[in-house]
Amino acid sequence: MLPPIADAHPAVLVVAGTHGNERNGPWLLEGWRRHPERLDRAGLAVHLVDGNPGALAANRRYLDRDLNRSFDPVLLADPERCERDIARARELLALHGPAGRSPCLVAIDLHSTTAAMGNCLVMYGRRPADLALAAALQRQLGLPIYLHEADPSQTGYLVERWPCGLVVEVGPVPQGVVNAAICRSTQLAVEALFSLLAAARRGQLPQPERLVVHRHLGSLDLPRHGDGSPAAVLHPLRQHRDWQPIAPGDPLFLGHDGRTHAYAPPPDRETGPVWPVFVNEAAYGEKGIALSLTRRELWPVNPDWARELVRLAAGLRGA
Length: 319
Description:
Elements: E1 11-16, H1 24-34, E2 46-50, H2 53-58, H3 73-77, H4 84-96, E3 104-112, E4 118-124, H5 128-141, E5 145-148, E6 164-171, H6 180-201, E7 210-220, E8 232-234, E9 251-255, E10 260-262, E11 275-277, E12 291-300, H7 303-313
Parallel strand pairs: 1-2, 1-3, 3-6, 4-5, 5-7
Antiparallel strand pairs: 4-6, 7-12, 8-9, 9-10, 11-12
Helix pairs in contact: 1-6, 5-6, 5-7, 6-7
């Protein structure tokens, strides 16, 4: 059952526990609920929401299917799809979607990873408001940005269903483990985002001249035997080397037989170095992803990005 209407004026949504075995974000949310003075909301109205309570209770990534791949509009509209995680996606949108009972215009989705990603942002596509907010945060904190796009095998992300949305991703930390440093890094990013949204609400969003993005090119699986079992692991020179470039010929995998598999770009991909992200992320084994490859690019910041975020933020409710 949905709770009663809280307020018809849009707020900022902060979601944690979209994956139930990522415990750091939910731990932060619980602390902020108990001690609200420990979170600087920068004068904004904020909804703190556990993304997948059932998976959190079970300490599992998800119950039936990945909640963070369940927000595709076609999937959500299919009455035959009744998995518990899809039902939760529908519930979140009905409650806090832009037209929900307690609407939000901006979504901040908190995640942790077993990969050595540090404190970073993940973006999906090139929406102007997302770009403006990411550029402002990179200017303030220097966080790297992973731009995930044009990958038909990975779709339906939570933040895509809100007019503006970013993922805060922090690691490395094992699944199911709460780490104080990971929590502190997450809170730093969240509070900086609140401050920037408040500035945009006042029409004063700071922007850099350039934005550094790591644009998604594709993902690689481990080499496998004919029966599907792994024939190699990540090479030691790749482990914990997220955001560090790989050139053609560099070691990539290490086989049972001790043979090194070098990186070779696919024939249809431009040559030159690539930057790996989510290297050996534990949750991605089931998706056939050992690491994702990106191209590091420097983009000029378009003033229209900030104008779009300022327009959007003007509709946010104050605390």
